[in-house]
């Protein structure tokens, strides 16, 4: 998600504009992801010149003076340079997008209209623990892919269409990207959603994408939904299409989708084996505010913080029945999942699990240690919890990352955790990375440890990891068939420079 930075552009004697982000005159909070996918944020501060305060201005030497005739390109580049950001979009105080290369003067930046908003678009890596490929969404809105060529790692056929990309989602073997004006571009295995020609005329004004094992669902600006891919796993929503309106978000198991509407109602479709039938709990699905999916089941968080779960037979062993822990599921604000278990994070920073014990539903074994949790993440069969003190606890199948004994002392000052299908990676505050779990799935990062310095964030695929460094370079490890070797791709750094 893009970060918003509000700053003031002050005209000096009606001729120049001063951009200064290093003084302490006025501090503005810039919210950027703190790596952890939870609510925590890393705060950066910058300062601005108060409009019309020449006495204040005289105290600070401007970093750079831009004439009124300066182009918008120069302003964007100056912000990118000063904030070490990705690409930047400028907006006027009245909401106008200041695009193109025109001058500030022509854009209407005057003495009475000089508050601009810059939207920062950092480069980021997209991956999923069920997808054997990665996609790098670059700062300029273009995309680079690598990994299994047949399952999304080769986007050459649509490369020219991948511009102004704002979001990317992946199924088991295909990718879909939202490009400029809300259009959608797909690539990868056609039987897994990589071919969308049959619905392209409907894919206009798309604002969000979600994917099951082999199908995609797109939420339109008007709240409608368009689906494509394998009809057996949610690619055909025709029988519930009249119910798909005012949709705000969608979750997916391996073979079914659940859409949350603005009125708090939930609509499901897809393969019944993967919980597409929610009729048995529809009377309980009232005032739903969040939906999460494991591989086989759904869990919905209600407005009061309680949880309703379901699958095809309300099987406790798959996570579809949470009655045994119902009394503990209060004040829930986030849910993570493995293939057959759920872990709920409560507002008091405690964790409650249910489902198949072999898939991580066993947190009661060390319940007293699972306190002050800020984020939870799942591999296929294990969970990892990031604590507020920067430590990490893991449980579940040891072969899938459920055992941290050999790296426990290294798991300190952790700011982000990522997962592949059977391993975890933790980014520490000093920019180094710790990994554990199945070595074949990225649990062994020893071959690239020397390169893992100044890491910004890590993303997992099916059996590999990719790390984005501060300078925009990408380091990968794990199975080459899952993207563990990005070779000598020309990657665009976060600062807009090509690197090998």
UniProtKB/TrEMBL annotation:
It comes from Symbiodinium necroappetens. This is E3 ubiquitin-protein ligase HERC2. InterPro entries: Ran_GTPase-activating (IPR051553), RCC1/BLIP-II (IPR009091). Signal peptide: none annotated. PANTHER family: REGULATOR OF CHROMOSOME CONDENSATION. Transmembrane segments: none annotated. SUPFAM superfamilies: RCC1/BLIP-II (SSF50985).
